[in-house]
Structures are given as C-alpha cells and as structure tokens.
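For reproducibility, we list the full input for the pantoate complex.
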Amino acid sequence: MPLELCRTVAEFRAACDRVRSLGRRVGLVPTMGALHAGHVALVHEARRRADDAAVTIFVNPTQFGPNEDFAKYPRTLESDLAKCEAAGAALVFAPEAGEMYLAGETTRVRVDGLTAHLCGRVRPGHFEGVTTIVAKLFAVAGACTAVFGRKDYQQLKVIQRMTADLLLPVDVVGFPTVREADGLALSSRNAYLSAEDRQRALVLSRSLAAAVRRFESAERGAGALRRPVEQAISAVGLSPDYVTLADSETLEPFGDDAVVGDRALLALAVRVGGARLIDNVVLGEDGAPGASE
Ligand code: PAF
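The corresponding predicted structure, in tokenized form, follows.
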C-alpha cells in the first residue's frame, strides 16, 4: 500500500477512521521528525502490535523552553517520508502548527507528580507541552496502539499516566532504546555533535553499563550505584543536568544512603557540546548498554 500523507486534522482523522472501518488497528508512532533507526524500529513495532502504522511528524513548539533548540531542531520531511515508506508505514500526519494549535487556544494538559522529577525539574513546562500535543494527537487518531521509545522513559510514564487518567482509548507501549554499536543511544539531537563530542558522549552509555554490572554483582547501595556515573561524566569534562537513581514507577529519587530493591531507574541528562542528551537504564530489567562491544 502506498504511503498516504495527511496535512490536516480532518484528513488524518478520516484516514484513521477508514483503517478502523476495515476492521484494522492503527499503530501510532508520534515523532518530531528527523527520523533515525530508533524511529524506524518504533514503526516496525507499531506494525507488529497493530495493522497499519501511522507516523506523526510535528516539531511541537510548546515543549521547548525559550532558550532551547526549537528553531534549529532538524526538519527533514522528504527523507522522513522515504524512511516511513521503506518501513512500511501506511500513514504520515505532518500538520502545520496552526492545525494543532488553533488561534485563541488556551488549553493545556498537565500531569502532576511524575513530572516533578528528572527532566521536569530542569525543563519547566516541557512535559505540559508534551502531554498537550500527545493528547491532541490521540484525540485525532482515535482508538489505537501508540508506541514510544524508552530512551524518554519519563515521557513514556507521563503519557501512560495521562492516558489512563483521561480514559483515552489508546494502548501506550514502550520500546527499548536503540543504540549505535558502541552504545550511544540514537537521538535526533546526535546530529548536533562534533566528532569529538560524539566520542565524549560515549561516557553516558558506558557509565550506565558499569552501573548495570555493579547492580548485577549485587550492589544495592543507591550512592554506590549513582555516584560513579556522575564521577565518570565529570572526569571527561562534562557537567550533567542530573544523574538520578529513582523508583522506576513513581520516579521519586532515592537519596544516596538508600538501599534499592530489585528494580530502579538510573537516568541522566548531560549537555555535550550543542546537544542535551538523555539516557537511562532500568536496573534489574535492562542489560548493560553497548555490552556487545
Ligand atoms: O518524543 C518525541 O519525539 C516528542 O516528545 C513527542 C512524543 C512526539 C511529542 O511531541
């Protein structure tokens, strides 16, 4: 089936309704474009879990802070469409901003609690922008399965909470982080990295991998798991926004003197050159990133 490009809310809503009228399920993959192999894996997962994959491509202004990279965020619609088609997506929704934010609009969707930690602490308003746009995309797409990458672990949890709280007819599923062979998590923002910065960025996945190995060797001290990650990042001259060990469901941080149970989220955000990169592992669940090296 050829890829269908929808530019308006009405077109995309009608296309998703048509999929359902044929007794098929929509597999939604919300993105901001600049697609890479991680997004392609999400499209394959959407096709595996549903019938017709629908990719949304929209650089959402409300989730960027005033000093963030909204203006320079890569916009590569032509090559994104080619990747969607090659991955077997049936639909792409690529609206103009005016389709998603009507003149005079004043409504925002806010999730409390989960957004108070990690990226929510350092990017005020970010998650409100994310939940507002994702609620709108769900409202347009209708009943579907939606697939999100676990690299944005906090985003996944926040969207699952919002979907449950608003009784939306969407099954929200997470998909494991896709990495380069050397462990670097795929991100559209990797495009901002110089060769030297890309090399330095490897400290993120490598320090997380070391933490996974300590956890697998029965280390349960929060500080003993978290601090070496922070130290490894500082040792290559980078200063993290945060390196946090947290409850993997509530995202409440553990103090360094806590003892963790069988499962804990170790998440970090670090500025490397012109990019702000995030990465995480769920200790007790994920293997060591880049372990194949
Ligand atoms: O993860 C992203 O690319 C964005 O935050 C999302 C979920 C598409 C909302 O704009």
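The chain has a mean pLDDT of 97. The first strand starts at residue 4 and ends at 6. Both points were considered when choosing residues for closer inspection.
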